[in-house]
Amino acid sequence: MTHEDAATGPGGTSPGPSAVRPGDPSERFSRSSGTADTPDPAVATLPVELADAARALFGDRLDIAAAYAELLATDGVVRGLIGPREAPRIWDRHLLNCAAVAERIPEGIEVLDVGSGAGLPGLVLAIARPDLAVTLIEPLARRTSFLIEVVERLGLGGSVRVFRGRAEEAATGANGMAPLRGDVVTARAVAPLDRLAAWCLPLAVPNGRLVALKGASAAEEIVEHEAAVAKLGGGEPTVHLCGVGVIDPPTTVVEVVRERVVGPARTAAAKRSRGGRSRRR
Ligand SMILES: C[S@@+](CC[C@H](N)C(=O)[O-])C[C@H]1O[C@@H](n2cnc3c(N)ncnc32)[C@H](O)[C@@H]1O
């Protein structure tokens, strides 16, 4: 699939299940009161102790990362996409944490980011790695409006598109739209590993990978969910640390290769109905 296939509008708006109008005024002005209304952009200033890491991870795109940090700390807070308390931690907990994952992503490939929220990690990866074609998959209109505006303002429309809808819809190609597929499917803070695998493996090309940003519980999640992941066609989940020697702590990711293409997971209701038919035969 070329990157242009599903991109129709400014900022790469996809013709997904629900079109999003860039700059919808009702979205832009939906939260215009309260203390979060006038956040201080200075809170997004790169802390001096993180400057080396930021330069290492963003290189000559650091100015774009800084512009994104400011948008998150201002518009992102006003619109309720980032908690006000997160604003001073945008660089370490969000931008650097996500950018470190770029080392796990090969050159020039198609990345799908499931549940992007305010753009994490997908937009950060697109900033750090202009060689990647990135699709941000997010069902909530308030979030996709923000994403589309940020893509436009940062001039990332050539490599980033926004799909409004759920991962399951993106994978099946709802509303006559072609199914989306990526070489790598990323996700952070979206769901436990079994549900993530069910949503994300169908979005990966055969032998493509899910790269899930996880916390310290990664190993426990693998023990709990590896059987479910295998049933979904995934290989053995592996844990990797990203940004070792650059950020502290490094980012933990769980990777799952789509080793086998299996049919969609059957719901309990579907299993019951199938059981009923075979008994009647
Ligand atoms: C806790 S937020 C995390 C946002 C972002 N990844 C981050 O790390 O800040 C989870 C996001 O996943 C999205 N989401 C939930 N279910 C989804 C699905 N089935 N497909 C795509 N996105 C989904 C939600 O709308 C929400 O924006």
Automatic annotation (TrEMBL):
GO terms for cellular component: cytosol. The keyword Cytoplasm applies. Coiled coil: none annotated. It is found in: Cytoplasm. Pfam families: GidB (PF02527). InterPro entries: rRNA_ssu_MeTfrase_G (IPR003682), SAM-dependent_MTases_sf (IPR029063). Residues 1-42 are annotated as: Disordered. S-adenosyl-L-methionine binds at G115, L120, A167, E168, R188. Keywords: Cytoplasm, Methyltransferase, rRNA processing, S-adenosyl-L-methionine, Transferase. Its EC number is 2.1.1.-. SUPFAM superfamilies: S-adenosyl-L-methionine-dependent methyltransferases. GO terms for molecular function: rRNA (guanine-N7-)-methyltransferase activity. The keyword tRNA processing does not apply. Belongs to the methyltransferase superfamily. RNA methyltransferase RsmG family. Specifically methylates the N7 position of a guanine in 16S rRNA. NCBIfam families: rsmG_gidB. This is Ribosomal RNA small subunit methyltransferase G. It comes from Micromonospora avicenniae. The gene is rsmG.
